[in-house]
Amino acid sequence: MYVTFLGTGSALPTGERFQTGLLLEPDATSEHTTSTGSERSEPLLVDCGSGVLHALSRTDVGYEGISTVLLTHHHLDHVSDLFPLIKARWLAGEEDLEIVGPPGTDDLVDGLLSVHEYMQDAVDLTVRVIEPGSFSLCGYDVRAMKTRHSMYCLAYRFEENGNVFTFSGDSEAFDDLAAFADGSTLLAHDCSFPDEIDVSNHPTPSQLGETLDGQDIDRVFLTHLYPHTDDRHEAMLDSIGKHYEGEVQFARDGLRVAVRSHD
């Protein structure tokens, strides 16, 4: 599968990074056996913060090619383009959209639709509420676990044909989440602030490095970057490297990465 970082920024816009959004795409003609049978994988949008709709329109998939959105949580920098996405698909002639997310996702969607009556029946919307555990979505085997954040948030682990992509969502770094990511071909992890910032609900580089120590992960990409991290990338990587020897780099908007083992 492939992961495109549509937005790698935070709730503080800088003009350089959109807010959180990821696009998962299968290999061409990819088909594998999931827990519910043989399925052909499909593109999947994970989170839909401000700017993500524009970034999505730059991809070959486009917003017309997205029939499912998976949300980690409901903070604005992860959902603010969700309503514009619904309207864009309607105007483009697309008739349906599935929105999947943690408890409260149904209330979120109902609240959005209540703002404009004319949008309530514009698209056939299906809302699916999920809890921590395993499920199948868009042809991927998915596992979810609750993170440590100021709002109920889920991390996700996606598997297709033996390759694994894990997304931390928003979270502090902690041992259970690192173990959840163990064995990943690619991990995208929140690393919002440099070490000199005293913060909760998000990790600093030293905290992240300490928790990843000993885990078997091919590549780690740092995302959800606040402007406090500007010009601090080298120091942040050095801080992680004091504890974790694996390959770590910063994600950037528009970066498309193959989730494929180096072996």
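The record above closes out task 2.4. Task 2.5 opens with a second protein, given below.
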Amino acid sequence: MVVALAMDWQELLFANWPVDPDLVDAHLPDALAVDTYDGSAWLSVVPFTNAAVRPRGLPTRLGVDLPELNLRTYVTCEDTPSVYFFSLDAEGVLGVLGARLFHHLPYYYARMNHRRSESGTSRFESRRFHPGARPVEFAATYEPAGERFDPESDPLATFLTERYRFHTEAPDGTVRYSTVEHDPWPLYPANVRIDENTIFRANGFADPVREPVHYYSPGVEITTSPSKRLQEE
């Protein structure tokens, strides 16, 4: 039986690139439609630490911390705005295997280092070591810049962050989804330096040429539902 999970997403960077919708559509299952903002689809690279991951209802102290890096885009399914994950890299072999087997998520094993300095600067480094998978290397430094704002004050930030369902395509070709619950993201503009990023090429995309939009968040508490096939109610 697959259980719902609770966790804290901490020290996030939302690095978002506008791209041609047709480029994204070619990589999506037929059941999903590209969602756009100002005529553009968006690809987002999101590094963070998945802290205190545990079955919902267990105390935080029994959870495990797993740094994570994902590449995602924005879709609609039956008029519901959602996130679609192309890949999720994470540290922890058992966590990766569990996510693949029980939640049908495209997780890959990587070695990661995520640390935050006393001044508030985060350094995130990741290198994929998953057998048979395309290599991914990512390294970035980021920090909040400016005043905190809520997504509802910024339509683009709302589009890119306030989504409460995510979809994936399972190895058997079925589309699956889970729902998520969390408070609105506390967001800041971000200063970002990306030193290495091969995650686009690993997922069949050319590196975007347009300038990205960056947000930083200290994080929120998250709960997720079990994974379901799209046709299930």
